[in-house]
Amino acid sequence: MRHTYLCPLRWADLDELGHVNNVVYVDYLQEARVELLRLLRPGVVPGSPDEAAQGEAALVVRHDIDYLTPLVLDRGPLHIEVWVSEVRAASFTLRYELFHPEPDGADGARRVYARATTLLTPYVFASGRPRRLTPAEREVLAGFLEPDDRPAGPRPGAVDAERATAYELRVRFSDVDVYRHVNNVKYVEYLQEARIAIGDALWRDPDTDATGVVVGRAEVDYHRPMVLRPEHYTVLTTVSRLGTRSMDLSSEIRDGDEVCARGRVVMVFFDREHGRSVEPSARLRARLEEALARGRAY
Predict the structure, then answer these.
(1) 1-153 to CATH, choices 1.10.1790.10, 3.40.120.10, 3.10.129.10, 3.40.50.11810
(2) Phi and psi for 68 in degrees, rounded to 5?
(3) Which of 1, 134, 243, 248 would suit a FRET pair with 190, their CA atoms being 20 to 30 Å apart?
(4) What homologous superfamily does CATH list for 154-298?
(5) Longest distance between any two alpha carbons in the chain, whole Å
(6) Distance CA 66, CA 215 (A)
(7) Are 3 and 35 in contact (CB under 8 A)?
(8) What phi and psi values does residue 266 have, to the nearest 5 degrees?
(9) Quick check: 9 pLDDT over 60?
(10) d(Cα 84, Cα 36) in Å, to the nearest integer?
């Protein structure tokens, strides 16, 4: 069985192209997930002060998101199906499909904007460790279970600080959740901030203003909590792959030498006028090949 959440869209969710920003999708996943997780602990709203007072929560360990087609605001609430694909002793995996039903299509026809996966673990803050799922929790999760044996892909790897571009990141008060940790969605936003900071130096096409980049896939692994503090964190970003019409950027969020999160995004070169993927110009490709060789934008 799949749970369906009707997610309202907001004008502030849009980017400069008039599409929902890639980071906002992660917020949508969180909204759908929270509604489902309420069933695990009846009477306790995930992320609420009541849950925080109990000293434990289901923490996000990993996100994978595939962006399939742009989403705009003109079609009403977004449908998000969420279900369980795997249950282990101390973790469980959720899958999502974000779509609008096609009003004039066949039964079940839908326009799919993204598909995603989240790995979660029950976590006890006092001990700083995950705990095993209870029999009652496993029973609830089993009601939404659709086993999926697709092998997991490689995870984002370590970034060489000597070859990466560094960005100083400061946490805002509004980034922190009720557990006094930075919310999982904000990590994805931080990686975006670092990408944008190096964008002009790296992928602005010197031959045309019509070629931009869009995010085709995002992967984030969460290693340790971040908190509100006056000192900055550091985001390291490096070019890790250059394809025909796309490239990979690998990133780490660090607190000194400690890794808070690792991420990788697939950036697709995009023709703004015609709305399709394109190959970068020869001059842009030469610049990117140089960046790939040294790992950094400047």
Answers:
(1) 3.10.129.10
(2) -105, -40
(3) 243
(4) Hotdog Thioesterase (3.10.129.10)
(5) 61
(6) 9
(7) yes
(8) -95, 115
(9) yes
(10) 10
Distance CA 293, CA 240 (A): 9
pLDDT in tens, 187-216: 999 999 999 887 766 766 666 666 678 899
Where do we find the tokens 């006056």? 230
105-124 as b/e: b if 16+ CB within 10 A: eeeeeeeebbbbbbbbbbbe
Question: Six-digit token pair at 162?
Answer: 């000597």
> 123 or 151, which is more confident?
123
Helix (H) or strand (E) holding 202: helix 184-202
SS3 204: coil
Q: Percentage of the chain surpassing pLDDT 70?
A: 92
- Alpha-carbon distance of 70 to 296, in angstroms, equals 29
Query: Are 101 and 78 a contacting pair, CB within 8 Å?
Result: no
Alpha helices by DSSP H, 112-173: 135-142
Whole-angstrom distance, CA of residue 131 vs CA of residue 146? 23
Examine the pLDDT at 27 and tell me if it is beyond 70: yes
| Beta-carbon contacts of residue 293 (< 8 Å; ≥ 6 apart) | none
Domain boundaries, the chain: 1-153, 154-298
> Are 1-153 and 154-298 in the same CATH fold?
yes
What backbone torsions phi and psi does residue 98 show, to the nearest 5 degrees?
-110, 125
DSSP state of 29: H
Residue with tokens 């060789």: 293
